[in-house]
Design brief:
A four-stranded antiparallel sheet has the order 3-4-5-6, sandwiched between helices. Strands 9-8-7-10 form a four-stranded mixed sheet. It is elongated, with a radius of gyration of 20 Å. The protein is of the alpha+beta class. It has helices at residues 21-29, 44-67, 72-95, 166-177, and strands at 4-5, 13-14, 35-40, 98-103, 106-111, 114-119, 123-130, 141-148, 153-157, 181-185.
Length: 194
């Protein structure tokens, strides 16, 4: 689901479609109010397929180098990378399907069909997880981690397009309104664990 803005306002995200019935039922049971916005995470199949495609490309480079008997050290390295990336593609599948639904009174988080709800006053902080390193990705917002007062962390993918993420801006606004903190986090700020 893509985030859309209400005509004329340019700031208030509106859901593209209604959430699944179980999400709506949980939000009603928790009395979370009206739906403000929703976010679907990327599909694990697309992520795994991309990783396998990169692994296959590296394996192809390995075969060509081996057949030409060139750069034996590079061939060993590309083979090791292809095996490692193929292995990591399994983790992409295990990440599963995620989604987040913002309501006036709280948030419903979905991961692989399991739902959890949290009211805004129960959120202690929002971690803005940014990429580190010395690449073009350094400093880029990758993910939000909603941290409850009990210590539970709910990850939500960031979708930064054209320099902004309307869903994320609304999430930050709601958490700040209820007294929660918004904290820079991730390798870019020196924090390696959420």
């Amino acid at each position: 689901m893509a985030d859309r803005s209400k005509p004329g306002t340019g700031a208030s995200p509106q859901p593209a479609e209604q959430p699944p019935p179980k999400v709506t039922e949980l939000a009603a049971a928790q009395r979370l109010g009206d739906l403000l916005s929703s976010r679907k995470g990327s599909t694990p199949f697309a992520n795994a397929f991309f990783a396998l495609a990169v692994a296959a490309l590296l394996f192809g480079v390995t075969v060509v180098l081996a057949l030409l008997r060139l750069a034996r050290g590079v061939a060993v390295f590309t083979f090791a990378c292809s095996v490692g990336i193929a292995f990591l593609s399994l983790f992409a599948l295990l990440a599963g399907f995620t989604g987040a639904y913002l309501y006036t009174g709280g948030l419903v988080h979905r991961k692989n069909g399991r739902l959890s709800a949290v009211r805004w006053p129960d959120v202690s902080e929002l971690l803005l997880w940014r990429a580190g390193g010395r690449t073009r990705l350094a400093g880029r917002l990758l993910c939000y981690h909603v941290v409850t007062r009990s210590g539970r962390k709910l990850p939500i993918e960031a979708h930064v397009g054209a320099g902004r993420d309307a869903f994320g801006e609304l999430l930050e606004q709601k958490i700040r309104q209820e007294g929660g903190q918004v904290v820079e986090s991730g390798p870019y700020s020196g924090r390696l664990r959420p």
